[in-house]
Amino acid sequence: MAYNPNKELKKYYGIAEVAEQFNVAESLLRYWEKEFSNIKPKKSGRGVRQYTKEDIEEVRLVYNLLKVRGMKIAAAKQVLTKNRKAASDASQIIDRLQSIRSELQEISRELGEL
Q1: Is residue 5 in a domain?
Q2: Domain membership flag for residue 56
Q3: Helix orientation angle between 15-22 and 53-63, rounded to the nearest 10 degrees
Q4: Is position 26 within any domain?
């Protein structure tokens, strides 16, 4: 399941919901929190993580650098330090292109059924 940036977001998401959005394990999100200071969800009194829209955008950025572009953690940290804006823009472009590709594949399937 691919991340859909156009999906209506509620105020807070739990770690399980965020992990499902990106098709990654919850443990990977907790690991990324330790490695990337920009990922810092709010924690309730019992330590339950609550991700806001901004937190999810930070996860999306890290996800695109590591999973989509195949960078190592050190390289991703360097990109975020040196040029966060360019990395964010590239990430948004990749998400949009993936969305367009899905739409085109659906149109192709529908035309094939005619």
Answers
A1: no
A2: yes
A3: 40
A4: yes
Distance CA 92, CA 47 (A): 31
Q: How do residues 17-52 score in pLDDT, each as one tens digit?
A: 999 999 999 999 999 999 998 899 998 888 889 999
Residue 74 lies in a domain: yes
Q: What is the pLDDT of residues 78-107, one digit of tens each?
A: 888 877 667 766 767 777 887 888 889 988
Counting every residue written for the chain, the total comes to 114
Q: How far is CA 23 from CA 17, 67, 104, 107, 111, in A?
A: 10, 11, 22, 25, 29
Please tell me the pTM assigned to this model: 0.70
What range does the domain containing 62 cover?
15-112
Write the CATH number for 57: 1.10.1660.10
